[in-house]
Amino acid sequence: MDSKVQDVRLSSPSVNFMAHVCAYPKDPRPSAGGFVQMRAFSKINLILDVLRKRSDGYHDLRSVMQMLALHDTVTISISKNNNGFQLICSDPALPTDDRNLVTKAAKFLIKEYNIVQPICIQLEKRIPQAAGLAGGSSDCAATLVGINQLFDLNIPLHTLMEIGQRFGADVPFCLLGGTALAEGIGEKLTPLPVHPHCWVLLACPDIYVSTAAIFNKCKPGVSNNIDDMITALAKGNLRDIAKNFNNDLADVTIKLHPIIQKLINEMITQGAMNAAMSGSGPSVFGYFLDKETAKKTQVKIENITGRTFLTETIN
Ligand code: ATP
């Protein structure tokens, strides 16, 4: 790890992950007839460097990840009827069985921690699926934190992160929140300085992108933006943060789906400080100094793709 990253790690305030993911009622315990309602926040990759392909088929990467206010809502309660576990999802296109990361996470904790009460989870989706915004990973993280809280399991954050990692490389970041440098396959996290507030326009074209195929076609390399990004974050300089957006996967995804480049160009033309693709795509994000310009751009962008969200960074 380079010295700049270490400096940041030493000077970073301790991260209160509970503040990121949770909106707790006063007494959520089942004995108090409680429930937990969690906000599962989306993320973007401000930088995504693909370093090398590993022998296990995954890729080592370095990425600066930022949490956004756009969120799903996960409500966890003790079930009235006696089903062991039930997931109800607002999006009929999403399976509710063991393919759903919420079900996977819940069933894991039920088994490992011998939870005997029947659980009902309601999942209200807003984050588009398979869009590069970590919607599924964030639902998974919210489920782990919510069940931990509801049943007073007292599982520490680092253990939740280890559990979460088995369900997806982005789950640990979704537990941590804020702004972080992700290394390894995304699971090694270093909190970064607090990101200054910024309006973020998301454009999520309704196209399917295979993450595995994009990674496999990408030629690994090293960009030099990470240090500059960390310096920009430490200075709280939004323009410099935006200037250093970089995504090694973008060329591959754009070749397959030129609409992504069109969305990036349009955001910049309309006044974004900069715009880039998140994850393996297809979502594009643009940074805006003022909400009015972002709103006007959203109207223009909706002529290109119908799925847009005006949101903001959160810490
Ligand atoms: P990342 O940015 O972490 O790569 P993504 O935004 O590209 O993630 P997700 O929305 O997290 O993708 O979903 C990836 C896959 O996970 C989808 O194909 C979907 O079927 C599956 N999945 C399982 N559970 C969920 C969930 N609760 N919400 C969304 N997708 C889910």
Characterize the structure shown.
The protein is an alpha+beta fold. The chain contains twelve helices and twelve strands. The strands form two sheets. Strands 1, 2, 3, 4, 5, 6, 7 and 9 form an eight-stranded mixed sheet that branches. Strand 4, helix 3 and strand 5 (119-124) form a beta-alpha-beta unit. Helix 3 runs parallel beside helix 4 (135-150). The longest helix has 16 residues, at 135-150. The protein is globular. The two termini are 24 Å apart. Bound molecules: adenosine-5'-triphosphate. The site of adenosine-5'-triphosphate has 18 residues, from helix 3 and helix 4.
The number of helical runs is 12
Tell me the Rg in angstroms.
Answer: 19 Å
End-to-end C-alpha gap: 24 Å
Structural class: alpha+beta
Shape: globular
Give me the oligomer status. single chain
Instruction: Please report which band the strand proportion falls in: under 5%, 5-15%, 15-25%, 25-35%, 35-45% or over 45%.
Output: 25-35%
The unique ligands bound to this protein are: adenosine-5'-triphosphate
The biggest beta sheet is recorded as: 8 strands, mixed
Uncertain segments of ≥5 residues (pLDDT<50)?
A: 1-24
Average pLDDT metric = 89
- How do the helices and strands follow one another from N- to C-terminus? HHEEEEHEHHHEEEHHHEHHEEHE
Tally of strands: 12
Percent of residues in helices comes to 25-40%
